[in-house]
Amino acid sequence: MKTWLFRTGQVAECDGIILSDLRKTPGSEFRNVLLCALKLLKEIDPYRYRRVQRRIQWIVCTTLSKAGSAEYRHNTKSCEMEFIEPSADYDLEWLIGWYACVLVHEATHGKIKSRGVAYSKKWRLRIEELCVLEEHKFLMHMAITRPGLASRFDAKFVAAKWRWHWDTPQREQILIQLRRSLFPEKGHNKSRQAGSGASTVPDPPKRPGAATL
Ligand SMILES: [Zn+2]
To answer: For 104, how many CA atoms within 13 A lie in the half-sphere containing its CB?
Structure first.
């Protein structure tokens, strides 16, 4: 049922991974940035790219409970994200690298879940540590061919980033997501909520940049 909804927002396909934009923001960079992120990942770390191919069938731009966050859904093999629309002076190269890290992180969730490990209170800390460790390994590959870009990321594990998601009841998170979907906050697309949850996009260094496929 949900994949039918994803299909209605399909904007691109790359090696079997389908990009779906459910927010349909006019002039959105979602398609361009995510295709560039996939291309970057494929070029510099084919091993983790194959994992993304295996574990993520859909990359979906939608509204979540927290601005700028991303989440893995095992039942649909989807990575749902609230894509941050870059402003004119936003550093697109950085943003592409950031979303490549997000895909590595979320695909690792897929791999762990496929091994039967539930995202329980007992295991969630260890699971997030492993996902961040995979980001770090990806950045080590990036450092070989793109040292300048790689040096601008820091894949340190900070448990506080997930605290809000861990401490807020699921039902409340769904209500917040629903409210944010129905009543978008003014300018929420550019808002940052540090420490709000998984893979939240922080403020990047601003530098003029352009990226195309
Ligand atoms: Zn995670």
So the answer is: 32
Residue with tokens 């770090």: 136
Dist. CA 31 → ligand 1 center (Å): 22
Domain chopping of the chain, boundaries? 2-190
Ligand 1 mean position to 73 CA, how many Å?
Answer: 11
CA 159 / ligand 1 centre spacing (Å):
10
Q: pLDDT (tens digit, 0 to 9) for every residue of the chain, 213 residues total?
A: 789 999 999 999 999 999 999 999 999 999 999 999 999 999 999 999 999 999 999 999 999 998 889 999 999 999 999 998 888 888 899 999 999 999 999 999 999 999 999 999 999 999 999 999 999 999 999 999 999 999 999 888 999 999 999 999 999 999 999 999 888 875 544 433 333 335 555 555 544 333 333
Question: Using CA of residue 106, residue 110, residue 29, residue 97, what is the dihedral sign?
Answer: positive
**Cα 106 to averaged position of ligand 1 atoms, centre (Å):** 6
Rounded-to-integer distance, Cα 37 and Cα 96, Å: 5
For residue 71, give the nearest of 202, 196, 204, 203 by alpha carbon: 196
CA of 155 to the centre of ligand 1 (A): 12
pTM of the model: 0.86
Measure 125 CA to ligand 1 centroid, in angstroms.
9
For residue 79, give the H/E element and its range. Answer: strand 78-81
